[in-house]
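Researcher: We're teaching a course module on how sequence relates to structure. For the next exercise, students receive a sequence and then see the predicted structure as tokens, so they can try to spot secondary structure elements on their own. Here is the exercise chain.
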Amino acid sequence: RQRCDLVAHAGGFAEMRARIEAGVPLVLVLAICPEFHQASNAVIANPTKFAPRALHAVVAVGIAHDPADGLLIRNSWGIHWGAQGHAIVSKAYVTARLRHAAVADVGSYS
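Model: And here is the predicted structure for the students to work with:
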């Protein structure tokens, strides 16, 4: 049998990236703005003036190399958002807007 614990994550962007590269998806809670809804070309714009509208959870599932140090995220809004429900967010976007992060720690228990 296995156990899945959510663990608070405060290790910074480098540790988040390392976990994703190791195959561990992360739940991210981001402060989002209107640009998030548009996700044109599956890349979320990083506005210089930011007016957060809400908090929203996504799952970081991969590393993007363009933009450099970006994360590939999966959204719950279906396949008509971004590229089949996925988009890229830059390191700058994540570090400025990240409110919470968690990892699923799967291990055995007795």
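Model: If you want an answer key for the exercise: The helical segments are 12-21, 34-38, 91-97. Confidence is low (pLDDT under 50) at residues 1-9.
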